[in-house]
């Protein structure tokens, strides 16, 4: 019986056959089960002789069944792995990949550079009211600066006042931040702004980034260091030279327009050096009237602010020459400057 059973277990062709053999030998009606039952009717001497033989047989058969089962399972797995190979050399269907627009990319870069300097990102609405966009920034109603901003106005209110407009700059976020937060304040505010203006260097919608620092004892020196540090990091050059030109903005005093030096390489202007100057931003010390309009004491708090065109910074960094192309959504243009697959 033993050699018969072991031979047929070894020869079992599949898991079903192994299971059938197990029932045949060890099941309720199985051959070995039957032998085990005979032990009860034996004399002690007989049982002492037969017991170990029958139990030994059962163990040997149980082990053989388990072993055959494992090896059959392994064979099945090997067969499956052999059948399921992937052909890594098959060509893949190409899926067009999107990419981040250069303007968004520059805004992300700027947020990262200023985060390293301890600036948080603040935001405000694109539909602004007159007070935040102009009045609180020391641009009263009759001020000529209002006309200079080429503002898009919404229809007048029922009472005839012209309250809502598309913000013409990101400076209203200065106001919203000073009204809401206690100094010290260090924020940048990137976002869309709108002016009724359109040519190769002006689009009706464009992007600015505002900077604002309010603290005790802030000076023009802090402003210049901050601008220099940010422009060096942004243009990834150490030879950035700044020129601060006295200027006028109603909300800063003194005010300065900031030029960055360029050099000419193969007939093209490259930021760095000082062969010529390009205007990149407006800035100044926050006007005491603006600080007071936000409910802060200008004798206690001082600060600086600056504002710059994000699209213009992107053009300078990537050597692009038509601002309007930024908003055409032409994939060939994006590809040309390496912004799309
Ligand atoms: N808001 C100004 C503009 O749009 C730029 C500016 C911001 C100037 C902050 C000074 C301080 O031209």
TrEMBL record:
Chain sites annotated for binding Mg(2+): 253
Enzyme class, UniProt record, top EC level: ligase
GO biological process terms held by the UniProt record: phenylalanyl-tRNA aminoacylation
Cellular compartments per GO CC: cytoplasm
Record note on cofactor: Binds 2 magnesium ions per tetramer.
Chief subcellular location: cytoplasm
GO function terms (MF aspect): ATP binding; magnesium ion binding; phenylalanine-tRNA ligase activity; tRNA binding
Required cofactor(s): Mg(2+)
Reaction catalysed by this enzyme: tRNA(Phe) + L-phenylalanine + ATP = L-phenylalanyl-tRNA(Phe) + AMP + diphosphate + H(+)
Domain Aminoacyl-transfer RNA synthetases class-II family profile: 104-341
Cytoplasm among keywords: yes
Keywords on record: Aminoacyl-tRNA synthetase, ATP-binding, Cytoplasm, Ligase, Magnesium, Metal-binding, Nucleotide-binding, Protein biosynthesis
Listed EC numbers: 6.1.1.20
Entry annotated with the keyword Protein biosynthesis: yes
Pfam families the UniProt entry points to: Phe_tRNA-synt_N, tRNA-synt_2d
Places the protein is found: Cytoplasm
Quaternary structure (record): Tetramer of two alpha and two beta subunits.
Protein name: Phenylalanine--tRNA ligase alpha subunit
Organism: Sphingomonas naasensis
């Amino acid at each position: 019986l033993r050699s018969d059973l072991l031979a047929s277990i070894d020869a079992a062709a599949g898991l079903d056959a192994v299971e059938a053999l197990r029932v045949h030998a060890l099941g309720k009606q199985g051959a070995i089960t039957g032998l085990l039952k005979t032990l009860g009717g034996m004399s002690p001497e007989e049982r002492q002789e037969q017991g170990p033989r029958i139990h030994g047989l059962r163990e040997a058969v149980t082990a053989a069944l388990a072993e055959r089962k494992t090896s059959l399972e392994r064979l099945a797995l090997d067969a499956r792995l052999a059948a399921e190979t992937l052909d890594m050399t098959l060509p893949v269907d190409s899926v067009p990949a999107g990419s981040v627009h250069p303007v968004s990319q520059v805004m992300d870069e700027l947020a990262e550079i200023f985060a390293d300097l301890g600036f948080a990102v603040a935001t405000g609405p694109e539909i602004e009211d007159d007070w935040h966009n102009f009045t609180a920034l020391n641009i009263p109603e009759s001020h000529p600066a209002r006309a200079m901003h080429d503002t898009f106005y919404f229809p007048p209110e029922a009472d005839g006042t012209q309250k809502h407009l598309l913000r013409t700059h990101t400076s209203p976020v200065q106001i919203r931040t000073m009204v809401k937060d206690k100094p010290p304040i260090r924020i940048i505010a990137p976002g869309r702004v709108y002016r009724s203006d359109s040519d190769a260097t002006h689009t009706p919608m464009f992007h600015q980034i505002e900077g604002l620092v309010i603290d005790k004892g802030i000076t023009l020196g802090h402003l210049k260091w901050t601008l220099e540090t940010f422009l060096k990091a942004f243009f990834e050059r150490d030879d950035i030279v700044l020129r601060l030109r006295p200027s006028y903005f109603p909300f800063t005093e003194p005010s300065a327009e900031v030029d960055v030096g360029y050099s000419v390489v193969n007939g093209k202007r490259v930021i760095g050096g000082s062969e010529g100057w390009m205007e990149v931003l407006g800035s100044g010390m926050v006007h005491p009237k603006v600080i007071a309009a936000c409910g802060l004491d200008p004798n206690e708090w001082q600060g600086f602010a600056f504002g710059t065109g994000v699209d213009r910074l992107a053009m300078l960094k990537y050597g692009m020459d038509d601002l309007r192309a930024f908003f055409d959504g032409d994939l060939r243009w994006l590809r040309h400057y390496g912004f799309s697959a």
